[in-house]
Amino acid sequence: MENSADHTVVISTVNAFHSREYYTEQIVNQKLVAPIIYLIILLLIGPPGNISILIIYRNYNKNVYRKIIWIIAVVDLLICLIGVPFNLGRLFNYYNFQSLRACRIVAGLLDSGIMTSTQLLVLLTIHRYRQVCYPLKRQITIQNVTYFIGACFAIGIVSGIPQIAVLQPLAETDFGHGVTGYTCSVAWKDSPQGWKNYNIFLSSLFLFYTLLLFVLYAFIGRTLLRLKRKRRTDNNRENAQYNRSAGLSMKITKIAFTVSLVFAISYLPLFLNEVAIKDFDETKLSWSTFALLKIVQRSYLINHVANPFIYYRFDNHFRSRLNSCFMTIARCKKIDNNKKQTNNMNGSPRKTDSGI
What we know:
The chain has helices spanning 2-17, 20-30, 33-56, 64-92, 100-133, 145-165, 193-233, 240-276, 287-296, 307-314, 316-347; strands spanning 171-176, 179-183. By secondary structure, it is mainly α. A two-stranded antiparallel sheet has the order 1-2. The radius of gyration is 27 Å and the shape is globular. It comes from Mytilus coruscus. This is G-protein coupled receptors family 1 profile domain-containing protein.
């Protein structure tokens, strides 16, 4: 009877040892520490940064440029609030992801947000291109830009529908002992052909947009260089107003170009990964390679966190307003600390002679 009980305990221990939870805990503790830290950092700086854009540029209806970057900040904020926690959940439940529908719905929402953000970035670039290269022709105005923004959202939503409507199965990993791990994977490796075609279409669209951005900025840069040379030859008092306007145009173009460059850099590793991962067996990768792979697969999130740093670097208005906010917070904190110290001093009991 005692031997039977011991045998039952051993079987229970083995079953507990060989479980999805066990393998998930092992991979989280050994291989996913760096990706988790990476995502936590993005979660800490992404939402506050995008909220600062929304506050500082809240009077966005004054011009097209600010309205577009304000809407981009809204989309980036949503991606930070949805995408980063979702990816953390995927990592913490790496082999034990339970809900197929949650995996696909959130992935579809992220696809929609990413595509919308990309469309808005292209719209911003086209706006700059027409302003710089064709200033006398019809422009995107504050009155009609809303329709273009609506079109960007429509294209983004349509792009994400297949991810939601077609529930691609969770990725499976066979550990033996009758244990199978389920991963919320968005890779193409084991996807049906139709799903691969859909992802190839999205990737081709991203590559086209990236190429379009750099071509347009090449034309913009050439035009601005020509205008800069003209300013040097006509640098007199009559052209002072023109020079200020050209300088502002150059600053806005630098911001838009840097935003586009960060977009390309942050998404390029993801596309290269999708091509290279076809020959990878994740279970055979070293912990460092595996961790790097998971960071690369989420490198696109940098694009939705970086814009506040770009505006802080190039936009004097944004930088001064943000510095003022920091100084106000620091001043308020200092006042609170002084009040606490004063209250502590006033509230401390005074020493009196006991007469002994």
